């Protein structure tokens, strides 16, 4: 695991985590939209 951390800068890991969190929040928002629209 330390080899990967040395090859990839911390900025890439931070950006990856932000993209994953933002993607899940967007998906949850769309899911709630469709659930509210179905009622």
TrEMBL record:
Annotated TM spans: 12-34
Protein keywords: Membrane, Transmembrane, Transmembrane helix
Top-rank taxon: Bacteria
A matching Pfam family: DUF6126
Descriptive protein name: Small hydrophobic protein
């Amino acid at each position: 695991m330390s080899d990967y951390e040395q090859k990839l800068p911390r900025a890439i890991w931070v950006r990856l985590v932000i993209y994953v969190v933002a993607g899940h929040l967007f998906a949850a928002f769309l899911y709630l939209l469709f659930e509210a629209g179905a009622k």
